[in-house]
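User:
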Amino acid sequence: MDITSTNTSWTNICAANDLTPDAGICALFNEQQVAIFLCQQNNSVYAVANFDPFGGANVLSRGIIGSTQDITYVASPLYKQRFNLVTGECLDSDEHQLKTFNVRIENEQVQLKEAS
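Assistant: Predicted structure:
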């Protein structure tokens, strides 16, 4: 999906029913690949950069959702580093952090906007 927005308003990315619980999808937003996840455990939607800084590839949308100590994360499918889906922080190394995006479901549409 190629969605480009030049302002800070919400942008429709896909239909809410395109999301699969506890799995990711990838979308292009403002010329960036974004991994979007619907977490069934807490019924929340998250959006982070799709680029895995350890593996050097756009693969995080294929990662595994999990949680530890009340932190919901995605584990990279390559080297298994875990990234906090709220903050983007790597739980296994202080040297890397993912960009996060504001995400919501409005009128049955998944919407994104740049985080401030």
